[in-house]
Specification:
The protein is an all-alpha fold. 72% of the residues lie in helices and 0% in strands. It has one domain (6-103). The chain is flat, with a radius of gyration of 19 Å.
Length: 118
């Protein structure tokens, strides 16, 4: 059985893959789940940075910003892991797109209404 390094295990776990199952798969599956895990991990890190900065910008409190950043990053990490692990290969395009449509819509910021200046 192949031994995985720390970073590989971390990325596979972020992707929601089974380490024991991947040990029996070809190398192409390792790369696939490694890339999925990297994308999920980077998404959560960017969410952590942006959430922490936003809270610090508003309240000027470093402890609250750090606490919120960690919680927000973990929330996004688990949400992304759930979305990816719940997606199944299916025949219809809509059945594949539907689980990711709602989170994608949540990521779109609301529009700002600007009044024309005179």
């Amino acid at each position: 059985m192949r031994k995985f390094g720390f970073l590989e295990k971390l990325l596979y776990r972020c992707a929601g893959a089974s380490i024991e199952g991947l040990a029996q798969c070809p190398e192409s599956e390792h790369r696939k789940y490694g890339f999925i895990g990297a994308i999920i991990l980077l998404t959560s890190l960017f969410a952590m940075l942006s959430g922490g900065y936003a809270l610090y910008y508003i309240f000027q409190s470093q402890p609250y910003a750090v606490a919120f950043a960690v919680l927000w990053g973990l929330f996004i990490l688990n949400l992304d892991r759930f979305i990816v692990s719940s997606m199944r290969k299916s025949d219809s395009f809509l059945a594949r797109v539907r689980p990711g449509a709602t989170p994608a819509c949540h990521g779109v910021p609301p529009g700002h209404h600007h009044r024309p200046t005179a």
